Amino acid sequence: MLDLSYKYMNLQLKNPVIAASSGQTKTLDNLQKLYDNGVGAVVLKSFFEESLPKSPKMNPEENYHPEIYEYFGYEHDKYFGLKDYCELVSKAKAKFDIPIIASINCTSADWWFNFAEQLEASGADAIELNVFNYASSKNFASPNIEKIYLDIVKGVKNSVKIPVSIKLGQNFSSIPHFVSGLEQNGINGIVLFNRFTDLDIDIETFKFKTSFEFSEKHEFFVPLRWIAILARQVKCGLCASTGVKGYEEVIKFLLAGASAVQLASVIYQKSPTVIGEILNNIEEWMKRHNIDKLESIKGKLSFSPDAEGVANYYMRSQFMEKIAEVE
Ligand SMILES: Cc1cc2nc3c(=O)[nH]c(=O)nc-3n(C[C@H](O)[C@H](O)[C@H](O)COP(=O)(O)O)c2cc1C
User: Fold this and answer.
1) Does the beta carbon of 46 sit less than 6 angstroms from any atom of ligand 1?
2) 3-state secondary structure of 189
3) Atom from ligand 1 closest to the CA of residue 193
């Protein structure tokens, strides 16, 4: 009997394939399809602070005493704005016997903590923090940006007891140092990496526009490298995201040291049945290689304890070799 179970943070997964946060994890109907195809866990579509409805009676511009809005409007939204999302969490929890991970994305610091408390109370098994903060000013140094993330993690960890992960973009100058700081502030899992919409230019209207395309397979190389580098340097769970199209990428991420692997674009491209296909192919691969327990391969190809030396040597020589081949 093949055992595909994996542990991610303190969550016991029946397999390491997680449906990433997207429209595919937004409704109970969609979750049912993912569940029927054997998904190991789901990260619900993020709740964005900006989506909070503002009570019209509390519009600060129309209010003679704007400070009333400041107090009541803020308090009202804070306590009731998340109600539908919390209901989704509770219903998903009651319906599916897999971990339900809630995801939040806030713009102002104090909302993170309150939302996290409400999600824990609704029964979420864990919270994924979807933090998005671009350094767009020359006056904003890297440590300032990193401090925003560190403070959010620290505050959320002080507010809840369930595991908390953070989903990062790729743009940090020293990912291992930053991740170590997140760990010191109590983070339980790191998702590498998020994938954002792009900024584009319309050359007919001379205006900026937003561009979005589903990921492509080659994009998995970047998180693969970072998971291999980080795996033996951190204790928290590493979860891969971006570019997973089939069972090969899942296995590569596990060998590099991931505790779980997230999928989003491929579910849109192929439908939720792709999860069942991936799981079947993983089982076939395990049989071919006489592996009974999938977790036994975790981190087999992560960088060795002398991670810094080996990683530097490997990356530099590999780069020189490959480029020479092409040239
Ligand atoms: C249509 C769509 C909506 C998404 N919405 C969210 C979201 O609300 N929160 C989030 O953290 N990531 C969101 N993502 C990003 C995915 O969770 C994932 O990290 C990213 O797409 C990379 O994985 P992939 O290559 O499997 O698509 C979304 C992705 C897609 C395709």
Assistant:
1) yes
2) strand
3) 19
pLDDT tens for each residue of 219-230: 999 999 999 999
Quote the crossing angle between the two packed helices 221-230 and 175-184, to the nearest 10°.
60
Question: pTM of the full predicted structure?
Answer: 0.91
195 touches ligand 1 (CB under 6 Å): yes
Query: Rounded CA gap, 72 and 55, in Å?
Result: 10
30 lines ligand 1 (CB under 6 A): no
Alpha carbons within 13 A on the beta-carbon side of 120: 15
Nearest CA to ligand 1 atom 31: 265
**Which of 3.20.20.70, 3.30.450.20, 1.20.1250.20, 3.30.420.40 would CATH assign to domain 6-300?**
3.20.20.70
- pLDDT tens-digit series, residues 29-72: 999 999 999 999 999 999 988 776 655 444 555 444 445 444 44
- The minimum-distance atom of ligand 1 relative to the CA of 220 is 25
Given a cut of 80, whether residue 172 has pLDDT beyond it is yes
pLDDT tens-place string over residues 73-132:
555 555 567 899 999 999 999 999 999 999 999 876 677 888 999 999 999 999 999 988
User: How many helices (DSSP H) and strands (DSSP E) are in the chain?
Assistant: 12, 13
CA trace torsion 193, 131, 93, 235 (10° rounding)? 60
Residue 194 Cα to ligand 1 middle (Å): 7
Pocket test for ligand 1, best of 18, 21, 170 (most atoms within 8 A of CB): 21
Which residue among 194, 212, 214, 269 has the greatest number of ligand 1 atoms within 8 angstroms of its CB, and so is best to mutate? Answer: 194
3-state secondary structure of 206: coil
